[in-house]
Amino acid sequence: MPEANIQGVHINYEIIGDGGPLVALTPGSRRPYDELVDLSKAIAAHGYRVLLHDRRNCGRSDVVFGGSESEYALWADDLRALANYVGEEKLYVGGSSSGARLAILFAIRHPEALSGLLLWRVTGGRHAVDRLSRNYYGQYIELAKEGGMEAVAESEHFAELIAARPPNRDYILGMDVDAFIEAMEIWREAFLKSASLPIVGATEEQLGAISCPVCLVAGNDVVHTPETARKAASLLPNGELHEGVVRLLPEDQLLQNWDVQEWRDAEPRLAEILTAFLKKAESSR
């Protein structure tokens, strides 16, 4: 796969499709982009190019800790630079869960480069923020305090990143443990500030200022609640909401964890919704 040096970070990426507008999609959590390949091929078949990449600290890209802003802000800026690298000044940006959070930050930080947003499984609420802040940051702070950087390197996620890109081991083990903890705490605090916001990473005012067309597909679990998607759609000036792509569940019966197979089975319907949205957005430009 091709690789780009983006802001000093080696980023693994791939473009699927031979022509048409560029659509950048990002998966959830810190997973590699592989899970989006089939969906991307379905979208590309309708005349688009889909840009997939492993974010820093994900997949086959570099591990890099630090910065004074949220990890999602860094990811958004990396994507903007990657788009420039592949020769695109304007693109559609979307993704699932943390990929949707990246897309929202992209819209806030780089509106001049954005044609539209494609979001599914958007995240919001105190439960989601508390749970995810520990998954992404808190557990690694505890590991570093108890076992130093060796414990971090041996954790499931970072061991996978080392296996995918062996030089990541030297970087992790060479990191000062206090500097690592400080970086994780900065990212955790930025994440925790979203507990009272309509969705993680954006205020009502910021959502209201996103003028491009936005497609939202609601989730059905306690981290990606239907109500979060409805709230976001109501605040976005040009948002369209799709429910029922996965099972419609009452708020008191939402899944505790997202159903991976259910979303996999829903990909043909998701591809239909996203390509129809892209066609409509392109025709109105």
Task: Explain how this protein is built.
This protein has 285 residues and is α/β, with parallel strands linked by helices. The protein is 47% helix and 15% strand. It has helices at 37-44, 71-85, 98-109, 126-154, 156-164, 167-173, 177-192, 204-208, 226-235, 260-265, 267-284, and strands at 3-6, 9-16, 22-26, 49-53, 91-96, 114-120, 214-217, 239-242. It has an 8-stranded mixed sheet with strand order 1-2-4-3-5-6-7-8, sandwiched between helices. A hairpin with a 2-residue loop joins β1 and β2 (9-16). α1 packs across α11 (267-284), α2 (71-85) crosses α3 (98-109) and α4 (126-154) packs antiparallel against α7 (177-192).
Provide keyphrases for this structure.
single chain, eight-stranded mixed β-sheet, 2 domains, 11 helices, 15% strand, 285 residues, Rossmann fold, alpha/beta, 8 strands
Topology (elements, then pairings):
Layout: E1 3-6, E2 9-16, E3 22-26, H1 37-44, E4 49-53, H2 71-85, E5 91-96, H3 98-109, E6 114-120, H4 126-154, H5 156-164, H6 167-173, H7 177-192, H8 204-208, E7 214-217, H9 226-235, E8 239-242, H10 260-265, H11 267-284
Parallel strand pairs: 3-4, 3-5, 5-6, 6-7, 7-8
Antiparallel strand pairs: 1-2, 2-4
Quickly describe the structure:
By secondary structure, the protein is of the alpha/beta class.
